[in-house]
């Protein structure tokens, strides 16, 4: 009898119901974030010259770039594994015990982002282009005509940190972003470090709008808000490229999602205040990056469907929203003093032949086939044709989705997410952070249970694709694989240490049982 009771007590102690089984995964992610922040001091997208040179403590990581990159990759892989670990505990229909609840997920996302928010930029050097283009506007030049080198000079501290390919290219961003950038220049001047921090504050403001809008959009689709936040806001791509990389996608996506949520609250009346405010926010997102204007189409088509879905309804709503767009663009363009010249610079990113773009790859492949077939090198021409076909396909796909929303076969939020996905996948240039145009809205849609595994896998893989330096490794190709291997080994040691602690803790619980003799120490 005593033996049976002892066995029951032992089982209860050895396998107690976990109060918070996700804490280990969430702490692993925080450890990864801290390692990334430390590694960024030597392996981040640091300005030229590096302000950390000569610093006794903060300058140490920059003296051994390979080791700093290895530390960064240890943190990167740890964060991705922790995110997947927590995601595995969540269910497509919502978080159920023992998965973490929404409050725990929110706290975790904030804690993971804090080290990245105070560390140097990583994964991209675009923030230095933002600073230079804002300074061009502030000095009275047209950023849609002159590049940083032509307007500021090659030796200007704001120009020196920009990759060579972008020093002579005009700005491809909208007037609202340049207007905000002028405010950054007014605060920071030529102080690059302060300018980076102010731009990061703008990116965090965009992320705050995403965090505000995403659960509300998910609730409209009947989805668990905590799951939507975890997949959409705590996604490694978001933390790496919007928080750490400071891409202006944060503002673009934040404005378009907030505008969609507010606009969907409107009634059928065309001058409804919520419709006008929501539409204005979406237009503001398009004045950061133009593709956000597609969201205005899905918002308008939903309002037209509510009014009856007739051709007259579509025409009236389109007229009102078009007039609002024209007025807002005119006002912001006059305030910035740059006009609409950015319409001629939208193809600037296409200077890079992006390997992630399907139609760019097809164009390059066709060009190589022509060379091998003895037809000559017509790669540029074939590439232009292939990209044109892709843009045509994107327009057709977006039109079909709009029609589906009008007929009630698809809800506006799913249509918005799918439409942005079509624009990205069929576009001439695709970077990992471009996929956030679709990934973040998709986390709030009814398609989540179907595409959840795809989102998880794609986000995890793409989070590892971009090196933290935000630059290529020409003439030092050996450095990246060595650093990644060292980072992986450090992560294995970290996980083995954690596992040994867990095993030791469980053994201590067994030894503490009444009548149980402790095992001999080897």
From TrEMBL:
Name the UniProt record assigns to this protein: Polyprenol phosphomannose-dependent alpha 1,6 mannosyltransferase MptB
Membrane listed as a keyword: yes
Gene Ontology MF: a single term: glycosyltransferase activity
Pfam families: MptA_B_family
Entry's family note: Belongs to the MptA/B family.
TM annotation in the entry: 28-46, 66-86, 192-214, 226-243, 250-271, 277-301, 313-343, 355-375, 382-403, 415-438, 450-471, 477-497
Lineage: Bacteria, Bacillati, Actinomycetota, Actinomycetes, Pseudonocardiales
Keywords tagged on the record: Glycosyltransferase, Membrane, Transferase, Transmembrane, Transmembrane helix
Top-level division of the source organism's lineage: Bacteria
Localization, UniProt: Membrane
């Amino acid at each position: 009898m005593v033996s049976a009771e002892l066995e029951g007590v032992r089982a209860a102690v050895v396998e107690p119901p976990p109060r918070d089984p996700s804490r280990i995964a969430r702490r692993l992610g925080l450890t990864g974030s801290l390692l990334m922040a430390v590694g960024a001091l030597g392996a981040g997208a640091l300005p030229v010259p590096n302000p950390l040179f000569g610093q006794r403590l903060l300058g140490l990581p920059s003296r051994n770039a390979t080791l700093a990159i290895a530390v960064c990759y240890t943190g990167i892989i740890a964060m991705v594994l922790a995110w997947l670990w927590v995601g595995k505990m969540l269910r497509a229909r919502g978080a159920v015990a023992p998965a973490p609840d929404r409050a725990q997920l929110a706290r975790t996302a904030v804690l993971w982002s804090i080290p990245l928010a105070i560390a140097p930029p990583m994964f991209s050097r675009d923030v230095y282009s933002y600073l230079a283009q804002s300074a061009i506007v502030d000095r009275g030049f047209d950023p849609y005509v002159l590049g940083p080198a032509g307007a500021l000079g090659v030796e200007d501290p704001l120009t020196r940190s920009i990759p060579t390919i972008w020093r002579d290219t005009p700005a491809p961003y909208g007037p609202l972003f340049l207007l905000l950038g002028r405010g950054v220049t007014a605060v920071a001047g030529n102080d690059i470090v302060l300018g980076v921090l102010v731009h990061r504050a703008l990116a965090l403001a965009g992320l705050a709008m995403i965090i505000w809008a995403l659960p509300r959009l998910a609730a409209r689709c009947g989805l668990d808000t905590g799951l939507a936040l975890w997949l959409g806001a705590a996604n490694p791509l978001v933390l790496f490229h919007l928080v750490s990389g400071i891409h202006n996608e944060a503002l673009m996506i934040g404005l378009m999602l907030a505008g969609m949520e507010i606009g969907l609250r409107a009634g059928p009346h065309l001058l409804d205040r919520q419709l006008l405010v929501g539409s204005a926010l979406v237009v503001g997102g398009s004045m950061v990056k133009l593709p956000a204007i597609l969201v205005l189409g899905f918002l308008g088509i939903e309002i037209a469907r509510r009014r009856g879905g007739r051709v007259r309804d579509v025409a009236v709503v389109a007229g009102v929203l078009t007039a609002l767009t024209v007025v807002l663009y005119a006002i912001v363009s006059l305030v910035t003093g740059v006009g609409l010249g950015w319409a001629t610079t939208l193809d600037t990113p296409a200077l890079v032949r992006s390997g992630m773009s399907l139609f760019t790859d097809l164009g390059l492949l066709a060009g190589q086939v022509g060379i091998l077939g003895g037809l000559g090198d017509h790669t540029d021409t074939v590439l232009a044709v292939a990209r044109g076909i892709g843009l045509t396909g994107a327009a057709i796909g977006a039109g079909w989705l709009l029609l589906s929303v009008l007929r009630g076969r698809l809800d506006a939020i799913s249509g918005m997410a799918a439409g942005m996905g079509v624009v990205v996948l069929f576009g001439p240039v695709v970077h990992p952070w471009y996929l956030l145009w679709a990934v973040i809205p998709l986390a709030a849609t009814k398609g989540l249970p179907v595409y959840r595994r795809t989102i998880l896998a794609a986000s995890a893989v793409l989070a590892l694709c971009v090196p933290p330096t935000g630059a290529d490794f020409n003439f030092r190709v050996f450095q990246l694989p060595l650093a990644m291997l060292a980072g992986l080994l450090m992560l294995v040691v970290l996980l083995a240490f954690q596992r040994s602690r867990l095993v030791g803790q469980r053994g201590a619980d067994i030894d503490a049982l009444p009548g149980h003799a402790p095992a001999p120490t080897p």
